[in-house]
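Example record

Each entry pairs one chain with its bound ligand, F0G.
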Amino acid sequence: MDASVDRQEEIQPSLSVRQALEEVRLRCVACQTLYPVLEPGRAARYRCDCGEVLDVEIPLHLPASLAFQAGAALQTHDEAAAWRRLFAERAALVPGAPGAAVSRRSGVWRYRELILPIPEEAVISRAEGNTTLYAVGSDQQQETLASPGLQRIGDYAGLAQLYLKHEGENPTGSFKDRGMVVGVTMARLMGARAVACASTGNTSASLASYAALAGLQALVFLPAGQVAGGKLSQTLAYGAHMVQINGDFDAAMQLVEQVCDELGIYLLNSLNPFRVEGQKAIAFELLQQLDWQAPDWLVLPAGNLGNTSALGKAFRQARDLGLISRLPRLAAIQAAGANPFYRSYREGFARRHAVQAQTVASAIKIGNPVSYARARLVIEECAGLVEEVSDPEILEAKAVIDRAGIGCEPASAATLAGIRKLVRAGIIKPNERVVAILTGNLLKDHQTGVPRAETVIIDPDLASVRRTLDALGPLTSSSSG
Ligand code: F0G
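Structure tokens for the complex follow.
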């Protein structure tokens, strides 16, 4: 990237884009001030004039053709049925079939009327989403016997009905792709030429991939020495310009906001409200997979709090549209060494905390979360809670998920550790239906909490194998006994 990155305050979106974005407003989560997306003389806005973060507001309406079919005087249940049909038809599109353009197979753009109502031609996509919802509860596995290995997870959690939504199955291996595809689509619509973020590694990998896809330059700020190897490699391989800073994620976050303002680069942290909109698709997709029966609890790891905000908002919208009849309770789980949100929660959100973060779960090593105000609102609205878990608890839960054959990165395992703790405390009841989000793929961090590979090299003969196996301990086999 040229040192004098082109300033972009002269961004001029096309007329059709202007029309599409006219219905969209940005609302301050604190003082409720409304802003248009396109402000004359201003490239992009990420904060209210009062300093707080913004929330995207769009009128949610069915495509005109479906509204007509659903009847002249639309009842909420007719409208909800029409939405469900629309999403079911789109979900049924098979890869490679005529009409199944990548964007049509996307588990984000499937819900585009609820996310960003722009013409289909304007979106970019890697067919993100469509991730597996694993049923791992002890009852569920006894019923199906499909994957006995999974039952260990349900037993460990102490739950009969537990689902794991594995967002590590996204194109770049984390849930970040859901928000990033919308953020980068917006960047392109706004005429940006470069995009930037601060990151603990997953956002940067996702940004680098989608920016490359969209033909944009990418600039990422990472805390030096604190990002897992898989994420660094991805970010570089996709061609991003990487700047490692002598400081933590929170310092990188402050810096990138200044850099973007100063150089007119489009900011793609979850401070950007369109990223949050895309992440809502996790909730819509899991509800669709559960046939629109809301679970009792939704449990997720919490760092910068963008995802907590997004899921809470999505559930509220799904309830308002009649897609579900009640809100699941959110449980946001933080690492005990990176727990500012937990501290505020314990004090009834009397004040906002910032901490010097320290945890093995580097993805959520965040001490001053940007989306605090948004996330607080959603926790209060759904009678949710915030819990903390120690590093040993995270690593123990990760080993359980890994050994079941699914695997995840450390931050994701905070969910299972949190569920176990909440079940043991009697807060989540053993018969309640719980969905946990696994946010990142095992390969993202191939060192933390992973057994070291044995470096025993043997001669290629049976006797040597026998000797080695004897040393390793007995192998049990169900057929030979
Ligand atoms: N899990 C993983 C694997 C993450 O990468 C992150 C955040 C979170 C959970 C927390 O989500 O920030 O929305 O509360 N990673 C960001 C990044 C900060 O830069 O990749 P959150």
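The chain is about 40% helix and 15% strand.
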